[in-house]
Design a protein that fits this description.
- This protein has about 325 residues and is α/β, with parallel strands linked by helices.
- It is built from twelve helices and six strands.
- Helix 8 (about 205-220) crosses helix 11 (about 260-280) and helix 10 (about 245-255) runs antiparallel to helix 11.
Length: about 325
């Protein structure tokens, strides 16, 4: 007897996760928007109005499938993984209570694990955080990284010395809980049976795809979209204005760079993000990696898209036939 599983489509940016989710939903019998619903796990797509720079699928291209955790925050608000966990898990329960299949789609690794794993998020301490931010400003990020490396080498290996947000958070959690930050990350174990899928393109082809997408974003109105977001409070938000694409668009608006440089900077930042995502997801032994054969220019031919969908379908069906507890 087969057991229906959840599906998580994860991995680096620009690999076509949204397309695979829709194609797989169709292949599983949900064509026309029936039988499947999609839960977003991309932190930037939580924001209303941040469409071009996040490559957010417009409603007209969602094939009728309900999408959750998209456009739920204003740009004035800070994205918070603990809050996301509460709302996203409630969405998953509602999806499955309706008898539908849930597909979790995104590249924000911590957000994904917040819904697939038994992940707990320690509280915050404003005074501790303020002290760490002051120390960061006074001593620099490397000083904080060295402090983390001395107290929690496992976390220091996972957090880049330039990732100031995660450095501050790791040290804050240690001060609040008295435990290493790494101790708050559980083993890779699903809360419910889940198949984890990721696309793995040849890296030069992915870079070409990223470069083309960055140019297209600028040409398609990213700067103008950002101006509209400034008018509704983008600069007052903490996390939204730092998102890739919008940080560079703000630099254009402020006269610090031109549009061509913005496109180049977006591409570079996105390539760096893809590298970090690859490192994150490679550590997860649950993931089924599917090779994606893009053209040298980064295009995905229709025949390749169909092959990838059928491979993903085979993996899902095999897991369901086995009745895996963890697929």
């Amino acid at each position: 007897m087969s057991t229906r599983v959840r599906i998580a489509i994860v991995g680096p940016t620009a690999t076509g996760k949204s397309d695979l989710a829709l194609d797989l939903a169709d292949a599983l019998g949900g064509a026309g928007g029936s039988g499947a619903e999609i839960l977003n796990a991309d932190a930037s797509q939580l924001y209303r109005g941040m469409d071009i720079g996040t490559a957010k699928l417009p409603p007209s291209q969602r094939r009728g499938y309900p999408h959750h955790q998209i456009d739920v925050l204003s740009v004035r608000q800070d994205a918070n993984v603990a809050s996301y966990q509460v709302h996203a898990r409630a969405d998953l329960e509602s999806i499955e209570a309706r008898g539908n299949r849930a597909l979790v789609v995104g590249g924000s690794g911590l957000y994904l694990r917040a819904v697939t794993d038994a992940l707990e998020f320690p509280g915050t301490d404003p005074d501790t955080r303020a002290a760490l931010v002051s120390r960061l400003e006074a001593e620099g990020a490397h000083s904080l990284w060295e402090a983390l490396a001395g107290a929690d080498p496992v976390s220091a290996q996972r957090i880049a010395p330039t990732d100031t947000r995660r450095l501050v958070r790791a040290l804050e959690v240690m001060a609040v809980t008295g435990r290493p930050f790494s101790a708050t990350l559980p083993r890779y174990e699903d809360l419910v049976p889940t198949v984890h899928l990721a696309l793995r393109p040849y890296r030069p082809a992915l870079n070409a795809r990223i470069d083309g997408r960055a140019r297209l974003m600028v040409d398609s109105g990213l700067i103008e979209e950002t101006r509209e977001l400034v008018a509704v409070g983008l600069r007052q938000g903490g996390t939204a204005q730092r998102a890739i694409g919008y940080a560079q668009a703000l630099a254009v608006i402020d006269g610090r760079i031109d549009r061509d440089q913005a496109g180049a900077d977006i591409a570079q930042a996105t390539r760096s993000l893809a590298s970090r995502q690859l490192k994150w997801f490679r550590r997860d032994p649950r993931i089924h990696w599917i090779d994606l054969r893009l053209t040298p220019e980064g295009a995905c031919p229709d025949a390749e898209r169909e092959r990838v969908t059928q491979e993903a379908l085979r993996i899902v069906r095999a897991a369901e036939a086995r009745g895996d507890d963890v697929a």
